[in-house]
Amino acid sequence: MTHEIDLYGVFVPDLLVWALVAYGLAVPVRRIFGRLGLYRLVWHRALFDAAVYVLLLGGTAALARGFAS
């Protein structure tokens, strides 16, 4: 069964909401990594950022699913 959120008559998939939350979390994480100098140890910054985003998205979706049940 698919789950959707109703925003004033517009049905938005849950994954879109989780993706926006994960992006909101990824922005400060990237800034923290930059200030700590972590990117000096990373081979490809864009791939690393994408992997961090996917991890945050998975964690956000798992937490949301845990709270829903």
UniProtKB/TrEMBL annotation:
The chain crosses the membrane at residues 15-34, 46-68. Keywords: Cell membrane, Membrane, Transmembrane, Transmembrane helix. This is DUF1656 domain-containing protein. It comes from Lichenibacterium minor.
